[in-house]
Amino acid sequence: MTSAPQFLTSLLDRYKDYNSQSRPSVTLTFAQSIDAKIAGKGGKQLILSGKESMIMTHWMRTMHDGILVGIGTALNDDPQLNTRHLPPRDPDPSSNGHSNPYHLPRPIILDTDLRLSPRCKLLKNFSEGRGRRPWVVCAELAAADSRAEWVDRRKELETAGARVVVLDSEAGANGLLPIPVILETLHKLEIRSVMVEGGAQVIRSFFSQGVTFVDTIIVTVAPTFVGEDGVSYNASLNILESGLFTPIAFLQSSGFKYHSREMFGPDTVVALCPA
Ligand SMILES: NC(=O)C1=CN([C@@H]2O[C@H](COP(=O)(O)OP(=O)(O)OC[C@H]3O[C@@H](n4cnc5c(N)ncnc54)[C@H](OP(=O)(O)O)[C@@H]3O)[C@@H](O)[C@H]2O)C=CC1
Ligand SMILES: Nc1nc(O)c(N)c(N[C@@H]2O[C@H](COP(=O)(O)O)[C@@H](O)[C@H]2O)n1
Predict the structure, then answer these.
(1) CATH number where 185 lies
(2) 1 within domain boundaries
(3) Minimal CB count within 10 Å: which of 86, 96, 167, 175?
(4) Could you list the residue range(s) of the whole structural domain that residue 26 is in?
(5) What ipTM is given for this predicted complex?
C-alpha cells in the first residue's frame, strides 16, 4: 500500500525542477462528494474527507510553502490550515528532546476588500505561537471614497498580526484579484510552492487559468452524495452533469490528464497533471 507521503512525493517532487519559473508551483486541491459538491446547502461546511484522506491533506500541507484560500472560505469555515492531524514527530536528537514540529505552510487569504475578521482562528493561532503569520492579499483601492474604512480595516488586521500584501494592481473587471499578479507577487515574497485549498470561487478561478498556472490537481472523492442543494466548484455542472465523476472528465478535457489515484480509507484521491 502506498503511504500518503509516498503518493504525494511521486507527484510533487518534480517541483524541484521548476526553479526557473517566475511563479510558485501550484497544487489545486479540494474534497468533493460523488456528485461534485464541496459544501452543503447555503455553503455549510462539510467534512467530506475521512480520517485517512484528511491526514493525506495534512501531509500535503507540510510539502508547500503557502496554503491559499479565498475570503469566502475564511469567513465561512474559519479554518486553521495547520497540520494538527499528523502523528507527533520524534524529537530532534540535536535539540535536547524539544519538539520537532512539522513544516507549516504560510496561510494566504485572497481578500480584495479586507473583510477577514481580526478574531479569526488563523490570527489567534499566530498570536498564540501556534501558526505562521497569515498574509492577506488585497488589491489597490479602486475607489478613493472608501479609503478611510479600508485603512481602518488594514490597521485592525495588522494589529491582530496579519501581513497585508497589496498587489500592484486593481481587482479585475470581474471584481477578483488577478491570478498571474497574485502568483508573481508571492514568488517575489519567496513562496516557491502553494497549495490552493478552495473554496468554490477560487477553484473556478485557478481552474479557468488552466495548465498555465496550475501544476497538479489533487481531488479527494468521498463516497457520499450531497444533493442538488450543495455547492459545486463548477456551476454549469449542476445543469450539464450527465453521470458520476463528470467533474473529473471535465478537468481532463481542460488540459489535464489523469496521473494516478490512491485509496485512503473509503475515499479515492485522484491526481491530474498537465497533459
Ligand atoms: N470541500 C473542500 O475541499 C472545500 C470546501 N470549501 C467550501 O467552499 C465554500 C466557500 O467558497 P466560496 O464562497 O466560493 O469562497 P472562496 O473561498 O472561493 O472565496 C471567494 C472570494 O475570494 C475573493 N477573491 C479574490 N480574488 C479572487 C480570485 N482571483 N478568485 C476567486 N476568489 C477571489 C473574492 O471575494 P472578495 O471580492 O470579497 O475579496 C471571492 O468572492 C464554503 O462553503 C467552504 O466550506 C472551501 C474550501 C475547500
Ligand atoms: N481535505 C478537505 N476535506 C474536507 O472534507 C474539507 N471540508 C476540506 N476543507 C478545507 O480545509 C479547511 C479547513 O481546514 P482546518 O481543518 O481548519 O485546518 C477548509 O476551510 C477548507 O479549505 N478539506
Answers:
(1) 3.40.430.10
(2) no
(3) 96
(4) 6-274
(5) 0.99
